[in-house]
């Protein structure tokens, strides 16, 4: 009897050991991918979340985790360091990263590769109505947030002011805040205006307009032409009059493209699987945010400012998007 019990005990121990080995092997086989996004109240974060959910439902061997970050410039640096496997960022910043454009980048981010273009990011200047800012020139002497230090928003703010012959030194006070902080500062009257490079309808601008009499400051055609001539990543755009509470007419502005990138070191098969999964499940992207409706196969290479990852390139060739 004792002998039989010992045999049963050994079998149970062995079975437990084999289960543990099996679980460990399965865990090791699962590939973990991090994607750097942006502000939780922006557009990058929910779109990155949608990509993560698509992987969860359709790619059992790949787990994508979403990280909130300081947005474009910070995300390019996370790609360079290997602290992020994928990232969403502006197409102008990705180009500067690839080429090591100073002062944003001390050296080229040589391993940045494109996956797909996503949507237009409008440069939007939201101002308190009582600050009486009808033009970018009226920002002179005002308290203005230009986005977080090292962000794409900060670079765009600098470039827009340049088109009007101005610099940050012309502001009465310059704040470098997150989107949520900018909203709070506007509502509290601690700043007069804030720059955002983000999709129209971003929650933070909607919320501010709901609780504060505000305006979107126009970027006129002459300034837009000057911007596009020097920085060809910009395009003319419009913030439609129904975008935010209190708007009475469409407001002209400029825009860049948000794109999804990956590290060159990512396996070709993995990049292919992720790209394919995104477009095979595009409805999930559309449901994540209103800007998700702009993500289409037809526009997937619009504004792509860095070389495509071979895995993404393979997918687009299969679809006839790229020769």
Structural overview:
Helix content is 41%, strand content 21%. The chain is an alpha/beta fold and 323 residues long. The chain folds into two domains: 30-118 and 259-318, D-Maltodextrin-Binding Protein, domain 2, CATH 3.40.190; 121-256, Periplasmic binding protein-like II (D-Maltodextrin-Binding Protein, domain 2). Strands 1, 2, 3, 4, 5, 6, 7, 8, 9 and 10 form a ten-stranded mixed beta sheet that branches. Helix 2 (44-58) links the parallel strand 1 and strand 2. The longest helix has 28 residues, at 2-29. It is globular. It starts with a helix and ends in a 5-residue tail after the last helix.
Q: Please tally the helical runs, counting DSSP H or I stretches of 4 or more residues.
A: 11
Shape designation: globular
The CATH homologous superfamily of the largest domain corresponds to Periplasmic binding protein-like II
CATH class of the largest domain: Alpha Beta
Average residue pLDDT: 90
Query: How helical, in percent, are the residues?
Result: 40-55%
Instruction: Compute the number of structural domains.
Output: 2
What are the secondary-structure elements, in order, as H or E? HEHEHEHEEHEHEHEHEEHHH
Please state the second-level CATH architecture of the largest domain.
Answer: 3-Layer(aba) Sandwich
How far is the N terminus from the C terminus?
74 Å
């Amino acid at each position: 009897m004792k002998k039989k019990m010992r045999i049963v005990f050994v079998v149970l121990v062995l079975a437990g050991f084999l289960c543990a080995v099996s679980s460990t092997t399965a865990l090791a086989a699962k590939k973990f991918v991090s994607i750097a996004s942006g502000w939780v109240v922006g557009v990058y974060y929910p779109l990155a979340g949608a990509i993560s959910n698509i992987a969860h439902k359709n790619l059992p061997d790949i787990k994508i985790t979403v990280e909130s970050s300081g947005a474009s410039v910070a995300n390019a640096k996370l790609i360079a360091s290997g602290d992020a496997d994928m990232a969403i960022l502006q197409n102008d910043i990705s180009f500067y990263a690839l080429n090591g454009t100073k002062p944003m980048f001390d050296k080229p981010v040589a391993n940045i590769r494109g996956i797909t273009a996503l949507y237009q990011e409008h440069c939007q200047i939201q101002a308190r109505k009582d600050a009486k800012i009808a033009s970018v020139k009226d920002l002179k002497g005002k308290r203005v947030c230009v986005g977080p230090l090292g962000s794409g928003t900060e670079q765009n703010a600098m470039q827009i002011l340049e088109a009007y012959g101005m610099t940050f030194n012309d502001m009465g006070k310059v704040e470098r805040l997150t989107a949520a902080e900018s909203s709070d500062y506007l509502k509290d009257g601690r700043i007069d205006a804030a720059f955002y490079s983000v999709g129209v309808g971003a929650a933070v601008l909607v919320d501010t307009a709901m609780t504060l009499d505000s305006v979107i400051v126009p970027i006129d055609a002459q300034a837009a032409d000057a911007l596009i001539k020097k920085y060809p990543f910009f395009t003319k755009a419009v913030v439609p009059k129904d975008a935010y509470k209190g708007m009475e007419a469409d407001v002209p502005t400029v825009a860049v493209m948000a794109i999804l990138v990956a590290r060159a070191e990512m396996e070709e098969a993995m990049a292919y699987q992720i790209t394919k999964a995104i477009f095979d499940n595009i409805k999930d992207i559309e449901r994540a945010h209103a800007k998700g409706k702009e993500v289409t196969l037809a526009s997937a290479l619009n504004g792509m400012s860095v070389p495509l990852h071979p895995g993404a390139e393979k997918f687009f060739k299969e679809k006839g998007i790229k020769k």
